[in-house]
Amino acid sequence: MESLPDWADAGFHGTSRGPHVFGAKGDIVAVLFAHPLRLVRSDGSNNKILWVARAATTSADPTAPATLVITATLDGTDTRVTREVAGGPGPSIIDMPQAGCWHLDLRWSGHTDTMDLVYAR
User: Fold this and answer.
1) DSSP letter at 62?
2) What integer pLDDT is reported at residue 99 of this predicted model?
3) Which residue in 20, 22, 31, 68 has a CA-CA distance of 20 to 30 Å to 6?
4) What is the sign of the dihedral through the CA atoms of 41, 39, 51 and 93?
5) Between residues 91 and 1, which one has the greater pLDDT?
6) Residue 87 to residue 115: CA distance in whole angstroms
7) Distance between CA atoms of 105 and 54, rounded to whole angstroms?
8) Spatial contact of 77 and 34, defined as CB atoms under 8 Å apart
């Protein structure tokens, strides 16, 4: 497992080698504290994801909303849900209504990226 890049490892100690997924453009990373992500977590834990955006992606547009808006589509279906992380990239609990591979369109502070996350049963 590769380490987090320097721009995403603030606050982590040691080698920062936890499960994570990069956005297609490389401007955001989802650090997965619950791995694998699950539809139902019987152990009482959450699907905690820390979203970290490159500092260079901070918007110069003061009117752009800071909220991280996640539009997720279940692969091979028309099932679509929206999740929001108030204040922009940061800690979150992101649950999905079905197991499977979800394609995420991410929007924050005038920026966009995409990634796929898999949720197990």
Assistant:
1) T
2) 97
3) 68
4) negative
5) 91
6) 20
7) 17
8) no
Give me the torsion for CA of 28, 34, 35, 39, rounded to 10°: -100
Q: Are 117 and 30 in contact (CB under 8 A)?
A: yes
Question: Which residue, among 37, 53, 55, has the nearest Cα to 45 in the 3D structure?
Answer: 37
Q: Which amino acid is at 20?
A: H
**Residues 90/8, Cβ–Cβ less than 8 Å:** no
The answer to whether the pTM exceeds 0.70 is yes
Please give the single-letter amino acid code of residue 63: T
Residues 50-87 pLDDT 10s: 999 987 645 556 677 789 999 999 999 999 999 999 99
Indicate the SS3 state at residue 55: helix
Q: Which of 95, 98, 120 is nearest to 36 (CA)?
A: 120
Q: Is the confidence at residue 121, as pLDDT, over 70?
A: yes
Q: For residues 113 and 104, is the Cβ–Cβ distance under 8 A?
A: no
Contact 9, 66 (CB under 8 A): no
pLDDT at 28: 96
Residue 85 to residue 101: CA distance in whole angstroms: 20
